[in-house]
Amino acid sequence: MFVRVILLLLISIELKAQPFNAAPYLGMGNTGLARQSVYSIGLNPAGIAGLTNTNVALAYQQHFLSSEIQSRAAYLNIPIKSLGGVGVGVNSYGIAGVSTLSTVRGIYARQFGKQIFSAVGLNYHQFYIKNYGNDQTFSVDLGLQVNVFPHLVIGALVRNISSSKYKEDVDQQISREIGLGLNYVVSDHLSLASDIYYDFRSKMNYRGGLEYAFDRRFKIRGGAASNPLHYLAGLGLILNKIQIDIASSFHPKLGTSPQITMAYGF
Amino acid sequence: MVFKKLVYCLVLLSISFQSFAQQEEIEIEELLIEQLNEELGENDDLSEFTEKLAYYMRHPLDLNKADRADLDHLIFLSPQQIENLLVHRNISGNFISIRELQGISGFDLQTIQRIQPFVTVRDVTSLDEFSFHKLIDASEHTLMMRYGRVIESQAGYLIQDSSRSRYFGNPDRYAVRYRMNFENKIRVALNMEKDAGEPFFKEKQKYGFDFYSGHIVLNDISRNIKQVVVGDYGLQFGQGLVAWNGLSFGKGTWIGSAARQGVGLKPYSAMNESNFQRGISAKLVVSDFEITPFVSYHSLSGNLIENGADKFITTINYSGLHRTPTELAYRDAIKQFVAGMNVTYHFKRFKAGVTYLHTSFNGQVTAGNTMREQFDFEGKSLDQTGVHYHYTYRNMYMYGETAYSFGGGFATNNGIIASLHPKVSTIVNYRNYQRNYHHFFAQSLSEASQVGNEEGLYGGIIYHPSRAIEWVNYVDVFRFPWLRFRVDAPSSGTDFLSQVTYNWYKKGKVLLRYRHRLKQENLNLADRNESLLADIIRNQIRAEFQYKLNQRWTVRTRAEVALYEKERDEKSSGWIVYQDVLWRGWSNRLNANMRFAYFHTASYNSRIYAYENDVLYASSFPMYYGKGIRTYLNLRWRMTKDLDIWGRYALTKYTDRETVGSGLDLIEGNQKSDFKVQVRWQW
């Protein structure tokens, strides 16, 4: 199993470049550029500019149902009065005891009026392989969100605007892409989201999804994304200040990658 | 009641409906074609749908009387919409106006526009007594005759050498339809057809036409006997995993069509020469149960090999063509016996049924020896059973069917349609057809043409941001667990469609469609001994514009591009543009429409299909490939109220070849043309 997974990872180069996205966003077709919550720390940093309370969140994902490849993440955002907020995120991806890709991210987000949200994120990346050493570098992300209509938010993200890279002998890349997304709240029960990415190297990536709330506490999500075409789905449960979400992508060849997240709002 | 009137007034205020001019029958076909995803065979007869709809156009369905089976004929309605309509009628009482439909959840403007020509709201009247005299007076009759042929001579007709394969008949095509209807209580239908190349009053067709089909239907005989059909009929149960005779819609741009509505017994009146039953069947109603017993004995064409007392069936040919020595030898060689029963229980918003179907032959059906055919059916008889259901809960419609073929495997198909918002509907469907699931009549949501060896998850969403805009998306991810034709390993694929339509109310529309398909197929590399699987990607982009300039003129323009790419093999592209002009004049007594198309496709793989208008009930879906132009002209003249005459001339001229077609259909020269004449007399 282990060898098979490694082989599969090696042949699917695009997969390596897929950044981690938290369950509430993953389940909705891996979208989220235009959404606003603590989980935006891991995606579009501008998503925390409008938050009015402090949140902390944890995430854990098993990739391709193999316990060897895992992602872990922790997020924290603190609002600064009506100006915006700051956020910190930590994320690691890797095979336990073999190699790890870690990212530490700091965000400063600023709100302009009630409609425009912007943010800058500074990332510290570290790539570590046991017995081979490691490499580290910095990169910068820019995020923007515009609340065009009361129910429609458009989001834009430039990931790795600094074009940062690891050393030449490291076979890992810090993905460099621009994304444009929208989130439309159709009603209290239904939201639709769609994101498009362009990664400068290969091609476009399209994603779309929806979230349906049966009531205030229980949500169901579903979506699809391209390259290759696959489904994503998830569930959300809100219990007072705690929010628990599960989601998974269903890759046609590699299989299921379930994720669980938990957030607490102060 | 107060609420009801209020809704009625509000609706009246919000929209002033224009009076609905008589819609053309041709337009019904176009509506249907929108839904079909081009996998339909070139010669499939759509009339089983269009004829019923044409009937409702002349005799609109009364919304206060229509039952579920009647509403099922309005195939534009999703099962959920039908359910909501029936519930609305139960709760609020009879409809006062069609406009009330707008108050029913799930009915958007597009749907109401689509069904409006076919429905009405009438006051309740009592039925008159039946008498034989009345039967003669009140009966409606239709007789329709069609003649057509390809003008150029084709190779199959020129061969004189009796040792070679050739066409025994002439290139003329004849078709005759007769219909009698007595107040929808008694219906008689008769179809006769001779395809091009088939002998007429000669050879095996000594009684004239190659294909005769007909039925007598008696409706509402008593409280318990709803319908009896003697002759040709179709069976459509559940999701079609046990039996679905006739045409069916699958993945498409009407979200409801992925969820089938098995109507049970359906009199068969199309010209397709296979996939129907011949015998007797009835629809019986006992309290909440509907019982459909059926029995059929039918001749099929195919290869029956006799080895002493043993008989073996190696091929069954469903094409309906009997022109060459082989086809004539196969004609009616196989006898198929079918019997069984369906029992359906219906209570409020819940419906469930059980089907049992037995099929047997006059010989042993044998499967091929290749690896891919390893799980195919073998034997003299097959028994199948299936359980189907549907249930409506709040804004969700749940449906499905699970079937089992004795000595084989299972097949299951289940889904949910949910109206998440008045503007947003979604569907999710899961299907799993085992490779050893056997059947002869099944058709259901599938990527392959057969129900078997397939697993898939289909999801769709329809969004109406406004009254005029419709945005449809679907995704289908599927897997074939066993080998297939030209695929020597388990394989998988995806299908994605996104289509946006902007409608000008009663005026026109603009449509944009993108479809992306991925599948796998064998790749033969020179330095490899075995086949590898290669991905095949097909992209389709379509833009269409249709506009009614005034009462006389309508224009329609389409441009389409097809891109085909097979990994490490072929890459080709094709495109087509066409302009249609539709005209009606002389107070609508003369209609004409014509097309001028230019197409250029690099290979057969980048071929493009496009619907063509034709004489009534003859519309086709031909493929365009190669390089050249295609043009046609259709005319319809309403001579009198009872008499219509149609004519058609079509021509394809290629600029990249010296011959057209292949084999017995080969034409020397670079053009192919044909004409048709059709007369209909109604009295």
Kindly list the characteristics that best describe this protein.
heterodimer, A: 266 residues, mainly beta, Porin, 14-stranded antiparallel beta barrel, 3 helices, disordered N terminus, B: 683 residues, 26-stranded mixed β-sheet, 9 helices, 32 strands, globular
Describe this structure in words.
The complex is a heterodimer of chains A (266) and B (683). With 266 residues, chain A is mainly β. Chain A has one domain (2-265): Porin (Beta Barrel). Helices cover 7% and strands 57% of the residues of chain A. Chain A has helices at 2-11, 13-16, 23-26, and strands at 55-62, 69-80, 84-95, 99-112, 116-129, 133-149, 152-159, 177-185, 190-198, 204-213, 218-225, 230-239, 242-251, 255-265. Chain A has a 14-stranded antiparallel barrel with strand order 1-2-3-4-5-6-7-8-9-10-11-12-13-14. Chain A is globular and about 50 Å long. Chain B is mostly beta strands and 683 residues long. Among the domains of chain B are: 1-123, no CATH class; 221-456, no CATH class. Helix content of chain B is 12%, strand content 48%. Chain B has 9 helices and 32 strands. In chain B, the strands form 4 sheets. Chain B has a 26-stranded mixed sheet that branches. In chain B, strands 1-2 form a two-stranded parallel ribbon. The chains are: A mainly beta (266), B mainly beta (683).
Helices and strands in order:
The complex is a heterodimer of chains A (266) and B (683).
Chain A: H1 2-11, H2 13-16, H3 23-26, E1 55-62, E2 69-80, E3 84-95, E4 99-112, E5 116-129, E6 133-149, E7 152-159, E8 177-185, E9 190-198, E10 204-213, E11 218-225, E12 230-239, E13 242-251, E14 255-265
Antiparallel strand pairs in A: 1-2, 1-14, 2-3, 3-4, 4-5, 5-6, 6-7, 7-8, 8-9, 9-10, 10-11, 11-12, 12-13, 13-14
Chain B: H1 2-14, H2 25-35, H3 47-58, E1 61-62, H4 68-72, H5 79-92, H6 109-115, E2 119-120, H7 132-138, E3 139-150, H8 155-158, E4 173-182, E5 186-194, E6 211-219, E7 225-236, E8 264-267, E9 277-286, E10 289-307, E11 310-317, H9 325-330, E12 334-347, E13 350-365, E14 379-393, E15 396-405, E16 410-421, E17 424-433, E18 454-463, E19 469-480, E20 491-504, E21 508-523, E22 532-548, E23 553-566, E24 571-585, E25 590-601, E26 608-609, E27 623-624, E28 627-638, E29 643-654, E30 659-660, E31 667-668, E32 671-682
Parallel strand pairs in B: 1-2, 11-13
Antiparallel strand pairs in B: 3-4, 3-32, 4-5, 5-6, 6-7, 7-8, 7-9, 9-10, 10-11, 10-12, 12-13, 13-14, 14-15, 15-16, 16-17, 17-18, 18-19, 19-20, 20-21, 21-22, 22-23, 23-24, 24-25, 25-28, 26-27, 28-29, 29-32, 30-31
